[in-house]
Amino acid sequence: MIIKVVVTLKNGVLDPQGKAIQQTLNGMNFSSVDDVRQGKFFEININENDETKAKLQVEDMCKKLLANLVIEDYKIL
Amino acid sequence: MKSSVIIFPGSNCDRDMDVALKKFGFKNQMIWHNDNSIPKSDLIVLPGGFSYGDYLRCGSIASKSKIIKSVIDFANSGGLVLGICNGFQILTETGLLPGILQQNKYLNFICRNVFVKVKDKQNKYFKDIKKNILELHIAHNEGNYFCSNDEMKSLEDNNQIAVTYCNKNGDESNENNPNGAIKNIAGIFNNKKNVLGMMPHPERMIDKYLSGEDGSLFFENLLRNLN
Fold it and tell me: Nearest CA to CA, how far is A48 from chain B (Å)?
């Protein structure tokens, strides 16, 4: 099965890329954009039939590799 | 004194480091990341570069490579581990050093000489070094040091901040911070001060005709303190 994960910077952590994207959007006349936070998206194809077990493994992967918990949060979708 | 430089796929300062270590008298050996163990060494160096193409996060893939267990064991037994630039990023990803190196605040790759202030001399790397301010070279896209408030308190309480960005007179104000690093941090120690990670490259400043010689001071001093 495929488990999807989103990793984003924690609130309060400076996101220079997000800021640059926001400024560009504003410059393209999307003037209502107040803030952009960018992140990473993973699709993990895991050989496991039990969704709960698969998600537990992916959670472990997030903590050990996919996210750096000093600055990032992860969300298993 | 024996040193080992670890080579990862994408390391590109490994040979510069080899040249520098040998110039100042180390017997250096190059170690491939996929090896299981490191020969007896007095110093292990994780060199600069772009290990694994900076995939995922800088240093994150290298921090899980086969050789890293030996590096962690060596560091935990008190051995000296020096990480320069990408090596610093790898050390934070292994957990040997706290915090993380984020993308530079102004999104630009910075490649130029900077001045750094030596903040602590109670360690084998900087003990008795002649100068307090060194001119070294930086070349990075992710050198913006960040850590939690608790980690910062512990770094400050234990004098683990090694070098900070400043100008030639030692002024550490904002305009002398090239990448947005918290408290101008350019390098830190672990709590035993045997592990040092720093963004500036001392190995690029070892020849007065090509660059400058403040890197020479660093290596000469390190060798003297190891003897």
Answer: 24
